[in-house]
Amino acid sequence: MTAVRRYLSSGLVQAFLVLVGLIWLTPLAGLFVSSLRSSEDAARGGWWTALTSPGQLSVGNYTSLLQNAGMTRAFWNTVLISVPTTLLVVVIAALAGYAFAWLDFPGRDTVFLIVVALLVVPVQIGLLPVAKLFGQLGLFGSIPGVILFHVAYGLPFAVFLLRNYFAEMPKEMLEAARMDGGGEWRIFVQLVLPLGRPAIASLAIFQFLWVWNDMLVALLFADSGSQPLTVALQSQIRQFGSNIDVLAPGAFLSLIVPLVVFFAFQRHFVQGVMAGSVK
What we know:
Structural class: mainly alpha
Order of helices and strands: HHHHHHHHHHHHHHH
CATH superfamily: MetI-like
Helix content: over 70%
Shape: globular
CATH topology: MetI-like fold
CATH class: Mainly Alpha
């Protein structure tokens, strides 16, 4: 381990990693520069021409985007879909993960195996049956319908992840808490949740990114009034084709929010990924 750390801390490796990072960020930089150029400037040359002609750059595209009622509604629809879905998946999975890890009830292992088996079910299989069910329930084309679909398909992985993480907690610690008079709910809230924060934060980031960037489910289950930003941008491509002054700022806005969420919880995310890898 010491030799690996010494090798990774060498100047040559760090320079290589910096180069890879710059190459990886080039499309993002290009998208950002394109979002600050007019459609006329975009038609005359690539985004890199703005580096020598900074007069092309302005925030006019973002001003127009914020004044576009359809795009702003789609942005808030994305928020209304992503945030409740993430919260519901995290809360339900945390409760179920604790129950599967530390509570003894009839059929526990069988139910957990069923949950694990649901991981292999592709989302495409459930699109048409669930669409028919939502149509009968009056949920088709609504934000609650999109949320319920994402929650249902996000829970198997979430329960599997948190159950395995909670099961690694010391059994003696929970038994000591029970001997001190702590009930299951108190142990879960005051002991398990704080210790499971890295895994919960990792799950929340993954779930938020999956839902925020989703287009397949929203394309089928959302109508024009409940469509998220991904579907709104796709419809702009279909309708106008080359309206880069709308697509570029909209795409960058759709990209920057997940980046902010990721960097805000980066420390917990790294802890959750590394949890259990070393003793």
